[in-house]
Specification:
This protein is α/β, with parallel strands linked by helices and about 260 residues long. The strands form two sheets. Strands 1-10-9-6-2-3-5 form a seven-stranded parallel β-sheet, with helices on both faces. Strands 4-8-7 form a three-stranded antiparallel β-sheet. The chain is globular and about 45 Å long. About 45% of the residues are buried.
Length: about 260
C-alpha cells in the first residue's frame, strides 16, 4: 500500500488527477470507477483542465459510478447523476454510451427487482473488463461508497439503508435538513471495489484523520470498511497533512514501508 501525504487539498487532488491521467494515457479504453462528494471535486476540476489544456482524451473511457441515492430523480441537484454531469461529464469528451451510474428510481418495495438490478449493474462492470482504477473518498466513520460500518467485506453491489450518522453528514447538501436526505442508496460492495486493479483513496481535513489512521494502521475490520484496502495488491492513499496528522509512521512523498 502506497501512502502519499501532500501539503493541502489542492496538491492532493492534483496528485490524484495525475495518477488517473496516466492510466487514461496508457490505456485509452480504460474503465474508471468514480465517486461523488466534496473530496473528488478538485480531482475532476484538474482532469477537466488536462482535457482542455493538455488534450487528455476521454473518448474511449468507460465509467462506473460507485453509488447513487434511491428516490432522487436524475435531474435533482443532489443526485449523483446530476453531480457527475455537472462537475465532470459535460466538460470532457466522454461518450455518454460509456457512462454508467446506478439507477436512482428503483422501487424499494420490490426487493426482487432491486436484487436483479444490482446483479445487472455488477454484470456490466464485468463485461467492461472490471475497473482499472476505483476512486474513493472516505467517511468520518471509515465507510467507502455507502458501505457503512458493519458491512460485509465481501459484499457486492446492493441496496443499503443509510446510517443516521451518514445522513447527518450529508444533510449539509440538503439545506441542513436531514428529512430531505434519502434513507436508501445503491452502492458497489467492498468485494466489488477490491476487484479494481488500482484503488485510489483520498481524504482531506482533520475530520478525516481518525478514519485514515484506522484505515492505514488499524486492524482490518468490517467496522472500518476502508481498512480492507490494506489487503489490496495496489492501493494508493493520497491525503493532505491534516487528514494524515494522526498517522504514527512518517510518510514521505512516494515512499512507504507498508508495501
Amino acid at each position: 500500500m502506497l501512502i502519499v501525504v501532500k501539503k493541502n487539498y489542492d496538491e492532493m487532488t492534483k496528485e490524484a488527477a495525475r495518477v488517473i491521467s496516466e492510466i487514461v494515457r496508457e490505456k485509452p479504453s480504460c474503465t474508471l470507477g468514480l465517486a461523488t462528494g466534496s473530496t473528488p471535486l478538485g480531482v475532476y476540476k484538474e482532469l477537466i483542465r488536462m482535457y482542455k489544456e493538455e488534450g487528455l482524451d476521454f473518448s474511449k473511457v468507460t465509467t462506473f459510478n460507485l453509488d447513487e441515492y434511491i428516490g432522487l430523480a436524475p435531474s435533482h441537484q443532489q443526485s449523483y447523476h446530476y453531480f457527475m454531469h455537472d462537475n465532470l461529464f459535460k466538460h470532457i469528451n466522454l461518450d455518454e454510451r460509456f457512462i454508467h451510474i446506478p439507477s436512482s428510481m428503483v422501487d424499494v418495495s420490490d426487493i426482487n427487482r432491486i436484487h436483479k438490478y444490482c446483479d445487472w449493474y455488477e454484470e456490466q462492470t464485468r463485461k467492461a473488463g472490471g475497473m482499472d482504477l476505483q476512486l474513493l473518498g472516505i467517511g468520518v466513520n471509515g465507510h467507502i461508497g455507502f458501505n457503512e460500518p458493519g458491512s460485509s467485506l465481501g459484499a457486492r453491489t446492493r441496496i443499503k439503508t443509510l446510517t443516521q450518522k451518514t445522513r447527518e453528514d450529508n444533510a449539509r447538501f440538503f439545506n441542513n435538513d436531514i428529512d430531505q436526505v434519502p434513507k436508501y442508496a445503491i452502492t458497489m460492495g467492498v468485494g466489488t471495489i477490491l476487484e479494481s486493479r488500482i484503488v485510489l483513496l483520498l481524504a482531506s481535513g482533520k475530520q478525516k484523520a481518525e478514519a485514515i489512521k484506522m484505515t492505514a494502521e488499524g486492524p482490518i475490520t468490517a467496522m472500518v470498511p476502508a481498512s480492507i484496502v490494506q489487503m489490496h495488491r495496489k492501493a494508493i492513499l493520497i491525503v493532505d497533512e491534516e487528514a494524515g496528522s494522526l498517522l504514527d509512521m512518517q510518510y514521505e512523498q512516494f515512499v512507504t514501508d507498508l508495501e
